[in-house]
Amino acid sequence: MTKPTATPLVGQRILITRPVHQCGGWRDLLRSQGADVDAVPLLEIVPIKEGDGAQQIKNLIMDFDQFDHAIFVSQNAVQYGFDWLDDYWPQLPQGPRHYAIGAATARAIRTRGAEPVTDNIDTAMDSEALLALPQLQHPAGQRAIIFRGQGGRTLIGDTLIERGARLDYCELYRRLLPTSAQQQLHDYRCTPDAITVHSGETLDNLLQALQASGRQDLLNPPLICPSERVAGHARTLGFTRVYAAANASDSAMLESLEAALQS
């Protein structure tokens, strides 16, 4: 019987920080590579269901057939956006083109019955790549809607406005620091061999939780970030060993993690 090839993760302790409902696949992948995995969720996704925010969502959803471009920035945006669409559009209108940030987001759109604009469903597309698509080069007079959480980057929206598009944000959820995160980090007695974060918001929450819990020592292990932009931000926050993955996909994050552990 052939002995399995050892990977750089065998026997390594990795601290992961994804939201509870999104960490399973990443955790299982790392364990399949021989890692010991600890999870402290540092991002909580809370859908907007009531109040003025929910009314604004409803108004935009009711006008969905009037949009030319519908951009989804995350899997959460797909989940909550299409939940709203299903309530008011049993059959999706034919007008809007659908776009995704990230390969997983594109696949999520496809599972909800729409076809995302992409050259390759398995290729992760960041904001800059999306803005380079020919369909978005000349949107003057066209309507675009960006499905996202409250706040976040404005690069896509600002660029589309500069190109003449009429833009609306459909803000579907809030991103919060889980109330238990600081205590979990305070009680965490290990020093991991590496830490992974999958977004800039998670990174900011990590720093906040480290400071509040007295675990500033966790600024020193290798930190794997989903882009050079987030990695640069991590360096300004005081993390000492920062590595940038090509994107937030599992394969890219794993490649960067393995490189960090071998360096």
Automatic annotation (TrEMBL):
SUPFAM superfamilies found in the cross-reference section: HemD-like
Pfam families membership: HEM4
Keywords carried by this UniProt record: Lyase, Porphyrin biosynthesis
Catalyses which reaction(s): hydroxymethylbilane = uroporphyrinogen III + H2O
Occurrences of domain Tetrapyrrole biosynthesis uroporphyrinogen III synthase (ranges): 27-255
Keyword Lyase belongs to the record: yes
Pathway: Porphyrin-containing compound metabolism; protoporphyrin-IX biosynthesis; coproporphyrinogen-III from 5-aminolevulinate: step 3/4
Domain of life where this protein originates: Bacteria
E.C. no: 4.2.1.75
Lyase among keywords: yes
Family affiliation: Belongs to the uroporphyrinogen-III synthase family.
Function: Catalyzes cyclization of the linear tetrapyrrole, hydroxymethylbilane, to the macrocyclic uroporphyrinogen III.
PANTHER family (UniProt xref): UROPORPHYRINOGEN-III SYNTHASE, CHLOROPLASTIC
Protein name: Uroporphyrinogen-III synthase
Lineage, opening ranks: Bacteria, Pseudomonadati, Pseudomonadota, Gammaproteobacteria, Cellvibrionales
